[in-house]
Structures are given as C-alpha cells and as structure tokens.
Amino acid sequence: MSIKKKDPDRFDPEVINRELLQFLDESPVSFYAVKNMAAELEKAGAGRLTETGRWQLEAGKMYYVTRNDSSLIAFRVPAGSFSDSAAPVSGNAAGAKDAACADGKDTPAGFQIVASHCDSPAFKIKSNAEITVEKRYITLNVEKYGGMLCEPWFDRPLSVAGRVMIRTKEGIETRLVCIDRDLMIIPHLAIHMNREANDGYKINVQKDMLPLLAENGSGEKAGGTGSCGAPEKDAAGRFLQLIAAEAGVQPEDILDTDLFLYNRAKGTVLGLNGEFIASGRLDDLQCAYASLRGFLAAEASCGIAVHCVYDNEEVGSGTKQGAASTFLSDVLHRINGALGGDEEDYIRRIRTSFLVSADNAHGVHPNYTEKTDPTNRPFLNGGIVIKYSANQKYTTDAVSGALFREVCRRAGVPCQTFHNRSDMLGGSTLGNISTSQVAVNSVDIGLAQLAMHSSYETAGAYDTAYLAEALKTFYSLSVEARGDGSFRLR
Ligand SMILES: [Zn+2]
Question: Which residues form the domain of 220?
Fold first, then answer.
C-alpha cells in the first residue's frame, strides 16, 4: 500500500493555518500587521526603503516600504533588470535592460500586483475617553471604525492596541502599544431588563457599546471612608497611565493616540474534521498573509512582483495610505525610475501589468442559504472566489477573469464565482478604488467566509493554502498584454 506523500513544494494547509493564526493573534490592529509583515520580509532578505530616501535598486533583490506605519508595499526586482546588474541605466532603454525577458521584443517588464487590506472594523477609543459612572465604574468612550456587527463585541474579554505619539528630546516618536491581557468587557443588559433583546433590538453605539474598564478607585486599599467600605478615590487618568506605562513613558509625554479595542479570543481550528478556522480579522488578514507567503515563495520571473497591503479599506480607502491614495502609483513610478525607465516606459509597463485585488468573500451560510445568488454559490474550502459585478464594484471582467482562472489552473487550485443577488447591494472593496490611481487589468477575488465583520469570523481550513499557492504561481509569472486582445503568461 502506498502512502500519499505531501508535496514539499506546495503549501501544507495545516502548517500555513497555524502560522496564519499566530500572525492574526499578533496583529490586533493594522500597525502590528504591517510590523509583523515587515519582520517576515526582512527575515527573507528584503531591504527596507523609506519614502523620503533616494532609491537605489539591485536586480534580483526584494524591497519593502511602509506609509503611516499602517500600509506596506513589497516588491522584487527581476534579475536582468539592468544591463549592468550593479547600476541602473539612464534613458528610455528599459526594453533593452529587460532583454533576458523581452524575447526580442522591446517591452519593459510589467507589475504583478496583489493588493489586500490590513484594517478591520473595530471600536476606536476617543480623546478624553474615561467616563465615571455613578462614582463606581470607569467606562471608555468609543466610536465605530468601519461597519461592524456590534453584537459579537458584547460579553467577551477585550483589550486595547494601537500607537501613541510621544514627546522626545529630538521631537516626536511613534510607539506601538498592545495591552496583552484581558482588560475590558462590554456587558449586555440582562434579558430581564430588556425583553425585546432577542427581537431585533437596535444598538446605539454611544449608549450600548462603552466598555467597562475599572471599578472606580480599584487598586486603592479596600475599606476606605465609604459607609460600607466603598472606594472613593477617583480612578480617572488610570487608562492613560496604563498606556503610558506600556509605552515606557510618562502620561504627560503622550501627545496623541490611535487606539482600538480588540477581541482577546485567539484564532482556532474547529469543525468535526478540523475543516474550519475562526478568528478575529480574517477579513482581510487571511488574504494579506496568503499574499505575503505567495510573494516570498515565488520564483523570480520576468514580471515585477508587488505585494501591496493597504490600511483604511473599512472606512472607504480615502486616506493618504489607503487604496485611493498615490501610495501604489508613487512606488511603481519610483521602481520604474530606479530601473532607468522614463514616463513612456512607465505607461508601457502599466499597460502590461495585472492587479489581483484580494479581499474576503461571502460563503453560502448554512442558516441563510437564500441570501446567496441562485447560480453562483461559493462554499468554504471550495477554493478561490472570483467576484463579479455588472456595475463594476468588482473589477473582474472577461479578460481578467480568464487570466486569473488560468493562473489557478496552473497552480492546481480550485476556484468558484460570486455575484451578489440581483436584489442585494453587497459590499465594496479596494480593487476599483486602486485602479482609479493605477489603471491596470484587475480581478477581484477572495476566500469564502462567514460572519464577515463580526469580531470573530469563520473560514475554510484549506483555503489559505489554496490562495498562497495561486498567488505564488501569479507572482512567478509575467502576464504580458500584446495590445491586440491576446495575452501571454510565462
Ligand atoms: Zn475586506
């Protein structure tokens, strides 16, 4: 009897899920996702670039750059990008520099881009956040970041993570903070006090969602001056003290903060046969992580592989580091320039480039099967979901759908299709926003999941490996447009 051996060249679903769940646990907010991706890139030999520095690129090397510490773009310069691998060539000779790949044609290498996002809906802590309630409780004032399901944030341990800006002798410095313990809870009102709780109760964030941080005066000696030993000392300022201690500074040195609540429940594998994974932030760190792994595992190709992870997709992408910003086009322009290309070369590169916009998709829900389109029914573990929308909320068209299906076929990975029901609006994503800045052929894809925008989401245990495998193949390819409706993948 022969034992089927695992293919060592392919991603093992069990192993990559374990690594994904660790990445999710260590990335409670976008700043940490970017920090952790940067660390993996550096471990693999990628050089760090800054947007304010001058770029000198070497053929065959990987680089990455961040913006706002919350968006990241990594890329690989193809071998043979320079006529002399030590130095860039000036002028419009990009075609000649790519000679090894040009196959006798005067076409500069295009960009093979995968874009995902690293932010997730959460509650952001407001300025002056502490609220003293009847002298006994300290709650925190919060507001929504993105469009989450509020319900799953109730009655579970929460904590806080983000960044603080601190005053230093030289000026101002960024420090990331993550309180790594169960710290807060948003308690539901008991059913006895709200008999409508199970009948579609409308949640008011300002009223219902304020987390309980402390008993006022907690940490003081019990048995104070109150009639029954009730603590009297005001705990106001304790939250800022906690954040300052975590950042290693005094509270008065904190100039400003971007702090968010996060769900303390760790990611896990579940299902009778371990066929599901569940965690906070699967949308969209599952795609971002699969993109990173595919990028790092890819073979050098004639195309310029670009791993792009944006912040702020959940709030419309309209920030300086979001998909609507110039971040990607700035980076692509600078790569082109560092390779010795001029504006003419840039436009030619863009015309032969391809974008995979990777953001999770809705799988068929076992309790609400009627919510999915009648003929396009993506399931968890069914492979990569290609998303379509006639009004182009998803960028997929026949060209990009065909190209991506061919990538999946070459990768040996299944794919499936998603359309919204025709009587349902559906969500938005970053593909069409990014292509308004960098107009390339683009496909919208994702992995099927349930409970999108819950504080704890569910996905398929086999799909992470499928996506990493397909993106490894994509990053190892060059999709070349011939300008006559035909394309070459090599
Ligand atoms: Zn998303």
Answer: 122-263
